[in-house]
Write a structure and sequence with these properties.
Blueprint (H helix, E strand, L loop, with lengths): L14 E3 L4 E15 L11 E8 L2 E5 L3 E2 L3 E12 L5 E8 L5 E9 H6 L4 E5 L12 E9 L4 E10 L9 E8 L5 E7 L9 E4 L12 E10 L4 E11 L15 E4 L7 H10 L7 E13 L2 H13 L10 H4 L8 H14 L3 H15 L12 H13 L1 H18 L16 H20 L7 H17 L4 H22 L13 H23 L11 H4 L5 H14 L15 E10 L7 H6 L2 E8 L2 E5 L9 E4 L5 E4 L6 E5 L4 E5 L3 H22 L5 H4 L4 H14 L1 H11 L13 H8 L4 H40 L11 H13 L1
Antiparallel strand pairs: 1-2, 2-6, 2-18, 3-4, 3-5, 3-7, 7-8, 9-18, 10-11, 10-17, 11-14, 12-13, 12-15, 15-16, 19-20, 19-25, 20-21, 21-22, 23-24, 24-25
Protein name: Ras GTPase-activating protein gap-1
Pfam families: PH, RasGAP
Organism: Ascaris suum
Amino acid sequence: MSICCASGRDTKAGRVVCDGHLRLIEVLRVNIAQLKNLPARCIGDNRSITIVVRLDNQDIYQSTSTVRDSICCIGDDFVHEISSNFSQLHFIISENSRIPRPIGRVSVKKRDIVKHSGEDRWLRVTPISKQNDVSGQICVDLHYDDETSSIALRVVDHSGLNFHEPVDLYLLVTLQGCGRMESKKLKIGSGKESDETLFMECEPRDNHDGQRPQIRLSLWHDVLGGFNSYFHGQVRILLDDTTMRPKSDSSGPQWYYLKPRMSVDEAEETTGENADPSRLGELRLRLFYTADHVLPLEMYKPLQINLINSLSSRPFCASPAGILEYLPSIDLVTIARPLMKIFVQANSIRPLLRILCAQDIVKCQDVNTLFRSQTLASKIIYEQMKFLGHQYLVISLKPVIDMIYNERKCCEVDPSKLKHGGSLESNKLNLIVYGEVAFSRVVDSNHRCPTSLREMFADLRDVVAMHFPGREDVQRLALSSFIVMRFFAAAIMNPRLFGLKREQPDPVVARTLVLVSKILQRLSNCVVSGHTLNVKEPWLAPVMQRFTDETHRLAMLKFLDRISMTEADLSISGESLSILRDGFFIERKMREKRRYLKNLISQRRRYVVLTETEICWQKSKADTEPKGRIQLQEVNHIEPVEDAKNVFRIATSTCEIQLQAPSMIEMNEWIVQIQKQRKRQLMIALRTTEPSELFEIDTERELETIHMALYEHAETLKHWKNALEGTEIPEGQPPLPRALQDQLNECENPEEAKMCFYSTIQDILHGTLLIEKAHRDVVNTFMSQIRSGKGTRELPIGDDNYLLLKSRFQKSLD
């Protein structure tokens, strides 16, 4: 998860390379399935197991706790966008107690992630060793001084080391292969560079007693005033026999990857093969690695213009945007999400949806199934609700979701699933309470709905009214198909998918969520259809009787009517403020870094609350008056504090607070959420209603996704173009879709429509070819830079991951 500064700078995902002409966006999807064969000492009591996922030394995810057993079913799945280069992915397995105790870890090298992407694998758990738990890079200037016949070395910089407080670093330099072995210490100052240049005498000669001359650099820092030392990694630099200069054939400071003490890969792999795989257990993983190559916006400009101009093309199905839906075996989600963002950014999403919805209505043969099928229109509306309405969803549903998670009351009303000793009457009352709370949170939320979604629902209702005049029931049916069925009810059933909860629900909670979602769906269907409630499950009928009275019916109708009104009240009253996030932190005073004792004494535990307009903190959750508060509109800095573990600061022009989070993951999540809410408050203060200004959209990335969809179907488009010229489509190739042919033939001038379709395909193929040529040119330039510039911060010596990048680039261009 990338962290951007609150200053409003334009930050986009990925790493910028090739002088800004290429952006690499690496995405890692991780599925943690099971853990088995834990040591016997780890099984049998009530303690649970937690897994922390780490990229080198950066924590990116913490799994839900699971009860220890011979086989622990975890079932966590998450996606992480990689913001910087990394070497290994670690899974740290710990048992939960007052002080978490590590059991072991699984480490996967980047090249193995790429090699085995998508594979279901069991990997053995290995002991955690500080000697091998290294990360980071070091930059050294190494050259041979002819005047003194010595090797001169100094440290220029370092980065990514595994410490948070200032430490006393030193480099242990060992010279081998010059007829003797000599070691010296080089102290590294607080400015990340050595205080002096180290000289080691060694004259060039043809034969160094059969030993290859080399320099070994080991990075350490003293602990407890020199009573102990902590190892940070080592580097081995081979020297030329005759010149005593590094064999990398480069001059000036060079960056090197720090390696573990046992840095010989073959030795590690041999040891791993002979080790007992069940000694510390095995972890079942499924890792997915993808990398997008995004060019500057000007390379996609013709594609962007053609997509937006599709709105004026007649017929629409012959336009670049209209053709996408008819590509064979196309994943509609793959194109719906980027297409939605492209048109939102261009402030043209409303006319696009009106066209698509009108097409769906014409195709629909049964009004009761209107917008229930999976079409491009329904997918774009769904993606727009998730994208623009996430904050609305959090405010509306998170309180009831949290209540269900925390209370864990049984709501099972199906006699066939009732556990022994359970009470149907008690469960029924529990379910009614949760159902009423969820219903109230939904129908009372219309004033919180974003203006952009109100406009979308108003347009949807207007298009339906044009085709079904006077049928308000059909209009409400269309609205409920999205706002209730695909948004609120779906989010209640699967809160993780909609970003409402991180942890998986246990079976009791999961069943309650399903039943509450059923209540909302059945009630909505009953209200919009005007028919008597027909409950498929007889055991649910006693509960639904509570929700089918006139009061509930009128409340749902009022909600559907108001949610589709374009008038938007952007002001937020004090009564309507909701808690977006809360948690406990340590408040830190701003003192000198070295005064550890005073820092410790001045720390205070605080309960911190983020609302829509402010962040406030107090001594405990029960306190009614906060110790302090900061208005989000006044915040000008939200950023991590350097050399402090999990600490970030929130500052205005007049005050500042530093908070220490329980983990790096939680710190990052708080920073991102505060930044997003601060931006919304600034836009509201400016009375800005354009969605493209309220939400960050990576236009180049979305256009690259559309380009790749067209590129993958380029052969199909060629055959369709040839078919319009009279050439028969080869056997085995997808024919022109019948639905597309029918739409072209039903136009007032079918021949003109086919010519428009033919011209669109030509433009698509030509534009795709130009973008691919730009990809090829920039990749060739980038690979040239790699070959000539290895040893830079971006491509340190000892990092062989660039070879994966090279092979993947070449494969994609074949």
